[in-house]
Amino acid sequence: MERRVRRNLREVTAVLSLVSLALVFAAARQAIPGSVLPGAPAWLLSAIPHVNAGISLAAIACIVLGVREARAKRFETHRKYMLAAFGLFVAFLALYLWKVALKGPQSFPGTGVVELAYLGVLAVHMILAIVCIPLLYYVLLLAWTHPVSELPETSHKRVAKVAAPLWLVSFVLGNVVYVLLYLVPAGFYG
Q: pLDDT for 75-132, tens place per residue?
């Protein structure tokens, strides 16, 4: 399997990216029938954004520490941090998609300029998240299919130098969206 993925790295990256993005858009548009998903009590669905904010903070820490370890050429520790960040991302996404598929996206309580600012932050967060998915799959698959000693001969470092900061900014902006939706009192927006 590993050799087959290595020979077809771009194709596997494309398929994984398309499937992932299709799931995200299907959940966001509530096109996934609720009957195929496990149900959840309202309190649990309401807790998911708060849990996901914590997951995001942990992922941010893992990305920062993973980049630090790569710069220090401690590649095994780098790998562990980046795999942890990816695992946290998968957990975040699974919870987010489950909530959105069952309950729909959270609407922003503000209007006017505040709403435009929120939508701008949300748009940048979403665009970065979409761009990051194929980049993350690509560097992850390169790391999986190549020994550490061979990675310098691949585009892993070059792609990771783009993927990591975009991924980090996406997570940070996701937390800004969380704060604006769930922590700022609705009355603050007027």
A: 999 999 999 999 999 999 999 999 988 888 889 988 888 899 999 999 999 999 999 9
For helices 75-103 and 42-71, angle between their N-to-C axes, nearest 10 degrees: 160
Torsion of CA 81, 83, 85, 90, to 10 degrees: -170
Six token digits for residue 45: 């669905």
CA distances from 143 to 1, 76, 140, 178 (A): 14, 11, 5, 32
Of the candidates 123, 157, 124, the residue with the CA atom closest to the CA atom of residue 139: 157
Three-state SS string over 131-168 comes to HHHHHHHHHHHHHHHCCHHHHHHCCHHHHHHHHHHHHH
Top mean pLDDT of 20-34, 108-122, 161-175 is at 161-175
Q: Are 142 and 156 in contact (CB under 8 A)?
A: yes
Q: Judge whether residue 32 has pLDDT over 90.
A: no
Q: How many CB atoms lie within 10 A of CB 41?
A: 8
Contact 152, 73 (CB under 8 A): no
Domains of the chain (ranges; CATH) run 2-189 (1.20.120)
Contacts of 67 (CB under 8 A, 6+ apart): 78, 164
Tell me what pLDDT residue 104 has.
85
